[in-house]
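Input set for joint prediction.
Command: fold jointly, output tokens.
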Amino acid sequence: GQQLNQSPQSMFIQEGEDVSMNCTSSSIFNTWLWYKQEPGEGPVLLIALYKAGELTSNGRLTAQFGITRKDSFLNISASIPSDVGIYFCAGEAAGNNRKLIWGLGTSLAVNP
Amino acid sequence: DSGVTQTPKHLITATGQRVTLRCSPRSGDLSVYWYQQSLDQGLQFLIQYYNGEERAKGNILERFSAQQFPDLHSELNLSSLELGDSALYFCASTEVGGNTIYFGEGSWLTVV
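tokens >
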């Protein structure tokens, strides 16, 4: 099935460092979503973006909807151990009835 | 706790067998989605139901089927199971007019 290109695939960082990950697509999306999945849990929505150029923050997390509508990035500032998990991007085309297209995830490990 | 309940949490079965995964959406949510998550394919949208009716279809195999019952719970039926069907199957639901998709904790299927 169709997938987004999400990078990096994995990251291992020191506590306190900033993190950046991104997703790109060959298709235009009307919605970009960022989810975090922890072991034994389902994905949990972090940030939702609905407009090209939109920049939205949720605590230490900031995400942007690319101007071309074909990409998005997620930044985490001053990482802490509980940021560990897999971060997924997902995009939704117009009228797609929430048929989200997903990235393969970025696995984040934080060294205290 | 997202409010979406999935059973069973773990299931081990043999190739060629058939299993049924069950999902109870959040109270009041009319839409139910099924996703398959595997290591090599990431999160793949399978199918969506809205108030008992199929709304959208994704990468769902013909061996798989789903339905949503009048009480809004949903079942995903997987038949003629193959080793490659081993994956985590997520159910998710959304509120009417809402933008957030809430995921259950998933059903871990292992086919041996």
